Amino acid sequence: MNTLTVRPATELDELLTAVRGAVARGAGWHETASYVGDALREHLPSPGLLPADLLSGERGTYRSHRLHVEPDGSFSMAAIAWQPGALTRIHDHVTWCVFGVLTGVEYEDLFTLSEDGTALIEAGHNPNTAGEVSAFAPPGDIHRVRNIGEETAVSLHIYGTDLNRVGSSARRFYDLPVQS
């Protein structure tokens, strides 16, 4: 899959350089997520990252636009346009993940797995607003993302894997009862 050409290129180039430096530190997943999170905070692109034609979609949907896959497969970058009412399945990830919200609110529901593995337990809710950056790594990264607002939200996600090779950052989907 080809990477998408976005604007402004210099913002993305500066972010790529910073992420390469963070990943090159060779730390564990949690530390790398933290370093990449710092890089994204410092170089969070402007809301105009995606052209207007990539922001449209039907209510309740989201579209991921792959922006970059590092040639050595060490990380990938995607921008996601979340339409009002968009909702992911509850999932975890194959590797560390960092995201920054460019516009709108990316609302995140957090879960833990019950001791016997038969249910999910609500662990919290995070309304991530424009300008906020979050970083996490497995284990303990079970969540779902949704847009509960009335405007399109856009977020930039950086994953510690080659999305061209693995296809998705999701490791597992959880279709278990949820306990509050």
TrEMBL record:
It comes from the Bacteria. SUPFAM superfamilies: RmlC-like cupins. GO terms for molecular function: ferrous iron binding; oxidoreductase activity, acting on single donors with incorporation of molecular oxygen, incorporation of two atoms of oxygen. InterPro entries: CDO_1, RmlC-like_jellyroll, RmlC_Cupin_sf. Pfam families: CDO_I. There is a cross-link at C97-Y159 (3'-(S-cysteinyl)-tyrosine (Cys-Tyr)). Fe cation binds at H91, H93, H143. Keywords: Dioxygenase, Iron, Metal-binding, Oxidoreductase, Thioether bond. Belongs to the cysteine dioxygenase family. This is Metal-dependent enzyme (Double-stranded beta helix superfamily). It comes from Actinomadura viridis.
